[in-house]
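Duplicate of #3305? Posting structure anyway:
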């Protein structure tokens, strides 16, 4: 099994030009400390919303793949987004980093997910896989989307990194700027 940081790095290596939406908590902190980019959208305090927000970004037709970095607890919190994502068929890669714990709130055991691969396929995802190594991730054919990749990870043994140093407003502003989206254009479509 992979350390969560190694799993994030392996996904980044595989999908270097994608837009990233990260779930709240330690996964966001890991992604921020590993490779902060203007094309990262960090959720701060929005557990269960990485999938729906990733779908929204993908539906904005930005011409780039969207990668959602979700935790097992956050994923379990909003399974209702799976059929919605599947219905729209976005170029979205939904990564579930599963270490069996709600790390950010003290390491409590998460509810058993059952089979995330079967859940995604039953909801209508084009593809779903489960891996536990960087080599397994690299070998996957992820051309059909939306696709889910369940990555089995080790329990955290390291301290969480620094918190995201940007306010939610600053995150939105820099993400929009990185996409070349003007605020007034967004207001016209809202």
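Output from current build:
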């Amino acid at each position: 099994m992979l350390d969560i940081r190694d799993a994030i790095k392996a996904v980044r290596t595989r999908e270097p030009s994608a837009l990233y939406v990260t779930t709240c908590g330690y996964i966001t902190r890991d992604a921020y400390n590993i490779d902060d980019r203007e094309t990262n959208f960090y959720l701060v305090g929005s557990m269960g919303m990485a999938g729906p927000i990733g779908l929204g970004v993908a539906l904005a037709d930005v011409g780039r793949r969207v990668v959602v970095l979700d935790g097992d607890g956050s994923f379990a919190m909003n399974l209702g987004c799976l059929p919605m994502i599947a219905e729209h068929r976005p170029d979205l890669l939904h990564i579930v980093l599963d270490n069996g714990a709600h790390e950010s709130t003290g390491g409590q055991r998460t509810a058993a997910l059952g089979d995330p691969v079967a859940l995604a396929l039953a909801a209508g995802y084009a593809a779903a896989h489960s891996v536990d190594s960087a080599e397994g991730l690299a070998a996957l054919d992820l051309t059909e989307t939306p696709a889910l990749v369940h990555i089995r990870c080790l329990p955290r043994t390291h301290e969480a990194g620094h918190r995201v140093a940007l306010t939610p407003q600053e995150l939105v502003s820099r993400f929009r700027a990185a996409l070349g989206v003007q605020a007034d254009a967004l207001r016209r479509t809202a």
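Confirmed duplicate; merging threads. The chain has a mean pLDDT of 88. Strands lie at 19-22, 40-42, 66-71, 92-98, 101-102, 108-109, 127-131, 147-152.
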